[in-house]
Amino acid sequence: MFILIVYGYMTKRYSARAIEEACKTDIRFMWILGNNPVPDHATIARFQNERLAPIIEDLFYQFVEKLIELGEVSYTNVFIDGTKIEANANKYSFVWAKAVKKNLIKLNAKIEAETRALAAKYGYSDKITFENLLDSLMLTATVLNVTFVRGKGKHKTQIQRDIDKLIEYGNKRHEYLESLKIAGKRNSYSKIDTDATFMRMKEDYMKNGQLKAGYNVQIAVESEYIVGVGLFHNPTDTTTLIPFLERIRSHTGRKISNVVADAGYASEENFDYLDNNEQNAFIKPQMYEISKTKKYKNDIFRPEHMHYDAEADEYICPGKKKLKYIETKKQKTDNGYETSRKVYQCESCEGCPHRSKCHKSQYDRKIEVSHKLKNQNRKATELITTDDGIKLRMNRSIQVEGAFGVIKQDFGFKRFLTRGKRKTEAQFFLIAFAFNIEKLCNRINSKRFRTSLFDTKPA
Q1: How far apart are CA 264 and CA 243, in angstroms?
Q2: Residue 46, φ and ψ in degrees, nearest 5
Q3: Are strands 77-86 and 225-232 parallel, antiparallel or unpaired?
Q4: What pLDDT, in 10s, does the model give residues 238-247?
C-alpha cells in the first residue's frame, strides 16, 4: 500500500480516489498491485492518515540514510528555505485572536454587571461569583417547581429568562477561551483546520492580497535531495530555523556543517545558535542587498556610517555631535532567547544644520544598536563573500528554490488535501519521497551521481 501511494504521488495523484481510479485503469498501478484486489479509496485514505502518518517521518529519514550510504548525501552543505502552502480550509473560516480577546473583555464586563444585578434582584450577596449564582438560581427554580419551556409561542418565567441569559454568557465565554487555547501564540487560525494559520500567499489567485489559511513549509536540501521537512504555524522563517535543525538532528543524529539560507533566517538568536554548535552560517544579513545600493552608501546619517568610539561607548554623528549611551532594551523571542539593544541619544540636536536630513523627530536623535548582531552580520558578510560562500549561495538558488519550483509547478502541488498538522505533514513527506526517488533516477541517468554542487560559471 505504501509503494502504491508513493507511486501515486510520483504520478501527480494526491487524492485517494485518484489512486483508486489509477489502480483500475493504469497498467503501472496494476503491476504494483499484482494479484491483490483494488483497494477502496476509503482504505487508502485510512492507511495514509491513520497508519502511515505516525511513522512517515521515520520512513523518510531511513530513505535519507540510504542516500548517505550511496554517497549522495553527507549533511555537509545543506540549503534551507520555506514556502507557504494553502491549507484545506475556506478563506472565510478565520478566527482572529485579537478580536476574541477584545470580545472576551467585553463579555466579562457584561457577566460582572449581570451577576451584580441578579444577585441584588434575588437577594444574594454582591460578592457571589457567576458560577455560584447560576447554581443557586437553578436550585431555586427546582425548589419552586419551575417548568423550563422551549420553542416558539411558549411563555418563559422570569427566572428561566435570567438562567438562560447566564447560560448563554457562560457558553460564549467558554467558546472564547477555547478559541484562545487553540490559537496559542498564533494571531489566527481556521475553524475548518484549526492547525492552519492565516498568512499571505505567493499564489494570490484572487489578486487582492487576502490572507489565506496555510502552513509555512520548511525543507532542507542537499545534493538536490530533500533531506529535512517541517511544517510550522508561524508565517516568518526567522523563528523556524532552530526547531527545524533540532528536529533533523534528533532523527538523523547528524549535525549540518554548513547551513545555507537567505536573509529571512538572519537573526541574533540564529547566528548565536549556529556559532555555539560550531556550524558555519552562510546566511545573508538582512541589510546585505540594501547595503550595496548607492542610496544606502551615500546616507551618512545611518548608524552604520557613524563613527563609534568603543572606549567612550558613544557615536559621533556627521554634525560632530555625540550620541551617548542612555539605556539597554531587552526583549525575549518566542523561543525564550533574550536580545539586548543599546540606546544612544544625541547630547543636543539644536542648531544642527543637518537636522532635517538626519531625522524628523522633534526630540534629539536616538539610535538603537545591537553590537552583538552587528559583529554577527560582519562575520556573515565575510563568510558569504568568500569563493565557497559565493558558490553555496548560487547553489541555494538552484537547489532549494528549484525543489519548491518542481513541487509547485511540475508536481502541481499548491494546496493540501488533508486537515490537521499531522496528516498534512504526512502528505508533504510523501511529496518529498516522490521527489527524492525521481531525483535519484534522474541523477543516475544524467551521470551526475555523487555530484553535490553545481560549479560557478566564469563571467
Answers
A1: 15
A2: -65, -40
A3: unpaired
A4: 999 999 999 9
